[in-house]
């Protein structure tokens, strides 16, 4: 049975979209995930070279911009219609793309919450003292 994800875009784009887990759509999601992760890596490298800290706000900006672009690609939208996604509820957009990534490619989109949890876990491990 085909997996489907529905994007309710009627208010902004004039119609709702049902995306099915075709080979093409799976590849679009995989490429989209790769783009998000590469953008995050590039950001971290730039910050390290400039000896500047990474911030959760910058992570959020990078992720949200890329989710909009990748959603537009997955839905087959024009550049103009993709721009309209900036006026859609981000939580709905993120939920749609996250569900597509999970259903079609068994992947999780990075989120500020997940990054924050990871940083906290890393700090906790670093702060633990050797019991010896």
Structure description:
The longest helix is centred in the N-terminal third of the chain and has 27 residues, at 23-49. The chain has helices spanning 10-13, 23-49, 56-75, 79-84, 90-105, 112-127, and strands spanning 4-7, 17-20. The protein is mainly α. It contains six helices and two strands. Helix content is 67%, strand content 6%. α3 (56-75) crosses α5 (90-105). The protein has a two-stranded antiparallel ribbon with strand order 1-2.
Short description:
The chain is mainly α and 132 residues long. It is built from 6 helices and 2 strands; from the N terminus they run E-H-E-H-H-H-H-H. Strands 1-2 form a two-stranded antiparallel sheet.
């Amino acid at each position: 049975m085909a997996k489907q994800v529905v994007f309710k875009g009627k208010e902004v784009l004039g119609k709702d979209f049902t995306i099915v887990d075709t080979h093409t759509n799976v590849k679009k999601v995989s490429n989209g995930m790769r783009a998000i992760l590469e953008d995050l890596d590039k950001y971290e490298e730039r910050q390290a070279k400039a000896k500047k800290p990474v911030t959760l706000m910058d992570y959020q900006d990078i992720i949200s911009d890329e989710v909009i672009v990748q959603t537009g690609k997955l839905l087959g939208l024009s550049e103009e219609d993709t721009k309209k996604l900036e006026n859609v509820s981000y939580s709905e957009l993120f939920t749609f793309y996250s569900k597509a990534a999970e259903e079609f490619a068994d992947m999780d989109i990075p989120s500020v919450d997940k990054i924050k949890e990871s940083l906290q876990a890393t700090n906790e491990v670093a702060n633990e003292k050797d019991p010896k």
